[in-house]
Amino acid sequence: MAKPVLRMGQVEMHRSGRAGWLRAAVLGSDDAIVSTASLMIGVAASSAPKGAILVAGVAGMVAGAMSMAVGEYVSVSSQRDAEQADIERETGELTEQPEAELRELALIYVKRGLDNELAMKVAQQLSARDRLGAHMRDELGIDQKSLARPLQAAWISAVSFAAFAVLPIAALLVAPASLRLAAIAALSLASLAALGAFGGHLGGAPIGRAAVRVTLGGALAMAVTAVIGRILGVSAG
Ligand SMILES: [Zn+2]
Questions:
Q1: Cα(219) to centroid of ligand 1, in Å?
Q2: Which residues have CB atoms below 5 A from the ion given as ligand 1?
Q3: Within 13 Å of residue 83, how many CA atoms lie on the same side as its CB?
Q4: Is residue 10 predicted with pLDDT exceeding 70?
């Protein structure tokens, strides 16, 4: 039997492992369109003038981008703190009891199906190359290449929110007064469908179903704020 030859780079791509930030950006973009368009439609339905709808849209864009950034920063920072604490504790253990840690690592490979001798060999070779890295990956489940990055998460979500919140605002600016509501809703729903399809593609899920789900959700949000804006516009006006 020929000995199998292993080459680097011969690894299959799995979609679920794709960059988390891209999925976060897609979610932030959905959020931007739904909330900004709903806000503008609510104000427009109250028979407010174009200037007021524009102010609502821009304020919604800025507020949404800031709140996404803060929210992401806080949540990713706490994940980061937990990872950091794990790494520090592991580094301490590796210095204080290297023998016990080596056995612990080998035991992990035994549990995954290697025999004792081979597991010890694997543990020794991986430790010789990058001891902390081997423990982080196989014991703690932390990948050094994908450590939580709070600032990156914050600016990516703020920028993607602002970029997509521009869509309903652009629809307002170009549409004639009589078609304002329809134009904002139509452009927003079309963008949501496209983003939903893209998000489904990223996750390897059925594209149609993902697009329909996010579009229906967005339509519902816009319909609810339109009704509320209309009621408030009538009672206040
Ligand atoms: Zn360990």
A1: 50
A2: 101, 135, 139
A3: 19
A4: no
